[in-house]
């Protein structure tokens, strides 16, 4: 049988963000798989070096549209460590609360996307409707649905009032009831169980050697969670379980995320009830003394890591970001080995990829004199050449087609 | 009583005497050290097999003037991060691949190749990351002297 190369992306209906997969097929079976990332590279690490620490909080927050709080928290934690700030407890609790609300909205979003990828759009509509509850809570508490702007160096910028606490608690009640229903659906609905079981298998051994993180790793039996292993914010004062599963497939990843939603509600209730009174910030210097720090944060997609090096000025010397998807995307090839092409969308979706996070940098139009507008034909020509370069060539096929049409 | 970080620090110095005075415990769960690049593999082997640092969290590349430095952030189950830093001259920034120890390191190595111009020995040909295919091979945006054109 002929080997056929299929390009998926950078723009493709099955992908929610630009990334490019080149797949070799024998019949319906995937024999080879290559990823090309970088389409969302925006130069954020470089841009951070040219801006002040305060500006960088807002810049790092915009690395990702889903886990924005993840990146700003990871960044400020590193800076606070270098500056040696003693953080007020209330601020740490507020960071925890926003972080868990973010996880809830992200996991509900994922559940909807995953349902959509297997053609179960009713579940997509349900979960995204329910997700509005947590989006409204985030908007009420922070003023924004995403990019909450809650962090600053040395604390948080907004308090959570007793009324807001009440609203969050009543929202949690509804969310918990709905999540229980989804767990019921996921564990009893035959369509889901059959479609997701044994799809995208990643053994524990491979998860470890490829460096998988977050729910992807935990669904392969890897018991790792930054919130417990390397506690930050208020997690060392909160009681919660790290959810793991031994299915090692997409079904396991679904169960882990559903279980984590329930844990998040537990964390949120504890944090809201035990949040101590006190100031929201400590005074932070504008110039940060020379030093370095590694900061980790358990994002909804897994461990997110920031490295910050300072040089005594008001701008950092280096900011390095490693988002969870970059660690997970390398597992996808393993998960797709010998699988059917039809499994590809759900397997990719199951790591909950976030390519904005992963890429972070491109200002191509600024290189030299290449600033020009392409006409439609030129763009088409460019596209054909680009794909030929990737190994996808339809020249022969077109010739044959032309002969047949004659 | 020694903390677990102090235990790691002293174990490293006993096994690798040249690290004496270089291993720094910055806070709980954070250990940093500099080492000559020739000794990186020995240290990786020891840290993986004897100390359980089985994950590579990521690799950070730094432009330090005349040198390029690379930090390998190793982690293990109990949350400790061991950051190993090596430096190479900018005129000949050659490092060896660590994909033999951590399969997932490939993408981090491609990143420092693109953004800082590191040369990674032993890494097979592959697609670049993260810069576009038509980005000039000799332009490395994370170098301090790189300017937008």
Features:
heterodimer; A: 406 residues; mainly alpha; three-stranded antiparallel sheet; 8 strands; globular; B: alpha/beta; Beta Polymerase, domain 2; five-stranded mixed sheet; two-stranded parallel sheet; 3 helices; 23% helix
Question: In a nutshell, what does this entry contain?
Answer:
With 406 residues, chain A is mostly helical.
What would you note in describing this structure?
The complex is a heterodimer of chains A (406) and B (149). With 406 residues, chain A is mainly α. Chain A has 2 domains: 44-335, Cytochrome-c3 Hydrogenase, chain B; 376-405, no CATH class. Chain A is 51% helix and 12% strand. In chain A, the strands form 3 sheets. Chain A has a 3-stranded antiparallel β-sheet, with helices on one face. In chain A, helix 3 runs antiparallel to helix 4. The longest helix of chain A has 29 residues, at 89-117. Chain A is globular. Chain A starts with a strand and ends with a helix. Chain B is α/β, with parallel strands linked by helices. Chain B has a domain at 4-89: NADH:ubiquinone oxidoreductase Nqo5 subunit (Beta Polymerase, domain 2, 2-Layer Sandwich), CATH 3.30.460. The longest helix of chain B is centred in the N-terminal third of the chain and has 12 residues, at 4-15. The A-B interface holds A 34-38, 41, 43, 45-46, 81, 208-211, 223-224, 226, 229-231, 292-294, 296, 303, 305, 307, 309, 317-318, 320, 322, 326-327, 329-330, 359-364, 366-368, 389 and B 26-27, 29-30, 32, 54-58, 60-63, 71, 73, 77-79, 81, 83, 102-104, 106-108, 115, 127-133, 135-136, 141-142, 146, 148-149.
